[in-house]
Structures are given as C-alpha cells and as structure tokens.
Design brief:
Layout lengths: L8 E2 L4 E6 L2 E6 L1 H7 L2 E5 L6 E2 L4 E7 L3 E5 L4 E6 L8 H5 L8 E4 L11 H8 L4
Length: 128
C-alpha cells in the first residue's frame, strides 16, 4: 500500500483530490493502479474543460481493461500531466506524486464531502 496523503480526499471509485486554495490536483489511488495492472495509455481531459463531479473525465488503459476516471469535484481543467502521454510509469510507481492526472480551478469547499484517508482505508476493507 502506498503512503496515502492525509490531505487528500477520496472517492468510492478510487480517485483522489488535494485542494489547495482554488486549485485541485486529481489522480487515481494506488488501489486503482494495482487493480488495473500494467498501464499502457492515459487519456486526459482537455485544458479549459468544465467538469462536474461524478462525470467521466479521463481514461486509464491497461493490458487488462480500460478504467474510467471520474471527476471527484466540479472545476475547470487548468493543467494536465502531459508526461503521462508518453510514459505511464509515473502513474504506476507514484500515483499520489508524479502520477497526478489533472489540475482544475475549484470553488471553496471542493471535496469536503469526500472520504479522508482513514475512511478510504476502511472502505477498502469492505471490497473483495
């Protein structure tokens, strides 16, 4: 298990978000990466795209499956991790650091209703 950031908030569909001021950084969790297996492609949202929490924003493809990545919060995409287009290893090896997917501009309080790291860890124990 990776060292999950205490400052992140988590979804039941295994996305994480860290909000600092009006900027949210989004990625997928170590659990999601582990269950996808060997990653081969990442499709990220376009800069400027307005996202609604819960909508499909990106896709992560592995040799086993294509995983949809949902926006954990409402926001407008300001930046994507373009390095992942050529090399998915940062996502595979460091999903909470260099493997982030996109950043977006958010309103105050974004992510407040999501799970903290302890709640997410407890949630994972309910999965088979």
């Amino acid at each position: 298990m990776a060292n999950r950031p205490a400052t992140a908030r988590y979804t039941k569909s295994h996305e994480w978000v860290i909000v600092q001021g009006d900027t949210a950084t989004v990625g997928i969790t170590d659990y999601a990466v582990e269950h996808l297996g060997e990653l081969v492609f990442v499709s990220l949202p376009d800069k400027g795209r307005a996202l609604k929490g819960g909508e499909v924003a990106a896709e992560v493809e592995s040799v086993k499956a294509v995983g949809e990545v949902y926006a954990p919060v409402d926001g407008t995409v300001t930046e994507t991790n373009s390095a992942l287009g050529n090399d998915q290893q940062p996502l595979a090896k460091d999903p909470f650091g260099s493997g982030w997917l996109w950043k977006c501009k958010v309103k105050a309080g974004a992510g407040a209703g999501l799970m903290d790291a302890d709640a997410y860890a407890k949630f994972l124990t309910t999965l088979s």
